[in-house]
């Protein structure tokens, strides 16, 4: 029985993003009998070169599954046939259209003009927040939150001890987003109030920002539909960067790479996005900031922006709750497809509007 | 589905409640005068009301005279408080209440298009000879 190095290709179940490539590769590369490993997201496969004696491919697949099991992957010889479930669209399309109609109707009845003139109290700031969350800011902030929450809800959770789908792990990214958003609004609002100056982004910076957000939302939305495998490769690479970094650190300290990268990504990304919503192109946020600058005090400014952020919370929290209360059930597919379609609609709305603002397109929407 | 139902009811109550509490302060927007273009001291002034969009959405003015766009706001907190005219590279934030003049120089024959800072509320001024 001579030892021989051979090349094998296996199918991997459970891969869905760039971080999964890193995760599977680094785990398998640690196995003593493997000399080369290459994962591919395109067809959910892994190519390994190594010496496995005369084990059958099936036995090798089982052996490779052992280190990956705790991360939620399984290696197998056969390809997993993935159901695309086009029938889900029969319900998802009407839901998304209904949502779009509701959004247009809310704009048409002119909820934005419900705010009276006169003094702005914390109560008014709160109501302005509510109106903002039902209005076009919904397309930006709500769309971003929906795409992020649904994406996190869809990804199987890989915790360190290998237990999947813990509720706490699902809620955490949501809490990070809302917490980051509320704290950032208070602190940055306070800074504006104290300094009497607004952080204004130039038109080109705003355009670049909305373009990036629009494209990210579009990709996340397409991925939520789960019918275009090619879109998986386009998934934003920020989690990948973080995962890579976390991997690098764990490699350096000679500990086994673990699911840490995911946890860091799951906590840090929503936190940063939550803070970033302060700068997002949303008319209400900007005019609240302009008002805040006239308050002339850190506390007044901070509390005004805090009241505004709390006003946006009911609608935004609803988006979060709807995504983490969705369980692995027959309805989940419909939920993700509806969310995907809504996110795509919002993304297109934002993209078109940002082209209007820089003058590349004539105004198209008319509310 | 239970937490979803609870939060749906809860957020509905918060939203409805706060509208009910503040309903006294909201009033219908005033009627927009038919003629919003006037000439004062040789300057053409085009008045536009900005709140939840722009009124009137379309104005007709004379080309070739020094022209000012005057934006009136009254408790305007939405996107219409930031005015954007791409062709003239104008980006202007309006105060919540008051009026703001934007000097656009000599009106050039044709249609001047503008929108709010997010692009969804349009307005236009048609300059005629
Ligand atoms: Cu992944």
What does this structure look like?
The complex is a heterodimer of chains A (367) and B (129). Chain A starts with a strand and ends in a 10-residue tail after the last helix. In chain A, 62% of the residues lie in helices and 7% in strands. Chain A is elongated and about 85 Å long. Chain A has a four-stranded antiparallel sheet. Chain A is built from twelve helices and four strands; from the N terminus they run βαββαβαααααααααα. Chain B has 129 residues and is an alpha+beta fold. Helices cover 16% and strands 47% of the residues of chain B. In chain B, strands 1, 2, 3, 5 and 8 form a five-stranded mixed sheet that branches. In chain B, strands 4-10-9-6-7 form a five-stranded mixed sheet, with no helix packed on it. In chain B, a hairpin with a 3-residue loop joins β2 and β3. Chains A and B meet through α4, α10, α11 and α12 of A and α1 and β9 of B. The complex binds copper (II) ion. Copper (II) ion binds next to α1 of chain A.
Structural class of chain A: alpha+beta
Chemical compounds bound to the protein: copper (II) ion
- Biggest protein-protein interface? A-B, 56 and 49 residues
Calculate Rg of chain B over CA atoms. 19 Å
Strand order of the largest sheet of chain A: 2-3-1-4
Number of helices of chain B: 1
Strand content of chain B: over 45%
